[in-house]
Design a protein that fits this description.
The longest helix has 26 residues. Strands 5-4-6-7-8 form a five-stranded parallel β-sheet, sandwiched between helices. A three-stranded antiparallel β-sheet has the order 1-3-2. The termini are far apart. By secondary structure, it is an alpha/beta fold. The radius of gyration is 25 Å and the shape is globular. The protein has ten helices and eight strands. α1 runs antiparallel to α2, α6 runs parallel beside α10 and α7 runs parallel beside α10. The structure holds 2-acetamido-2-deoxy-beta-D-glucopyranose. The site of 2-acetamido-2-deoxy-beta-D-glucopyranose has 7 residues, from α6. It is found in: Mitochondrion.
Length: about 290
Amino acid sequence: MEGAFILNLTLLVFIYATRDKYLCLETATIYESNPNLLPSKMLKIRNVLNFAEKCSTRTRLLSSGAPQIAPAIDEPGPKESVKTEVLKHPDYFSVRDIFTVKDLFDARVHYGHREGSLESRMLPYIYGSRLGHIVFDLDKTAQYLRQALNITAHIAYRDGIVLFFMRQPQNAHLVETCAKECGEFAHTRFWRGGIFTNAEKQFGAVTRLPDLCIFFNTLTTILSQHTAVRDSAKMGIPTIGIVDSNCNPNLITYPVPGNDDSPAAIEFYCRVFKEAILRGKTKRKEHEAL
Ligand SMILES: *[C@@H]1O[C@H](CO)[C@@H](O)[C@H](O)[C@H]1NC(C)=O
């Protein structure tokens, strides 16, 4: 009896350490088949059972159709196997060939703000300074931008809603046109607080929030951080943000260091993100027809 308890306790510690869903399920059955334990230990065990139960419910919720729990019974259909193939591929939508480092240079993505306004958190992405202006390391920018494009294409493929942000009036029309051309959404005006965080009250109904927010600039017209950056983080919405040398990248899921003011650079970002979204959507249509 004592031995069994110690064994169970070891397993329990192991569960807490790994949070492995399979182990949770297994221990739950061990406890169920072991009902004559001492009362003082029962309480602990009941807690474990609750934990295991919660664990397994969450697992069921997270895995649609739970293919991982019973992989041998259900043969995955052609759609499922395509979906796993899409996720396993390192660059399924070949976002790598959407742009080159020279394209970044031609679009003046390397221009930062003046040295005096440098945000120290941007230091790792900076190449140097020239005539008092920060210059970005475009090799690093390219790497981050490709990652961002990859995730954008994947979200578009999964039928996610993408919301573009631009708070500079001189570039707003570019971003709005871009969003329209790829069938997504743009927000270019004053951001009322609570649009994400208090959506049900503000719109009077259950609201579907975007699945990805793309900030072409992360600052407002008065150079404070856009409130939607914080609100997206609060609501767990992934974000992509072009961060210039005076911006804080901390709250952004996929920061892309680069110039966020020149129309040439904004046009470039519009082109590449539109391309990534359209590639994702085209693939989705192809796979839906399977
Ligand atoms: C692209 O995104 C997918 C899905 O998130 C991921 O599985 C893949 O590893 C990513 N590729 C790269 C190169 O980051």
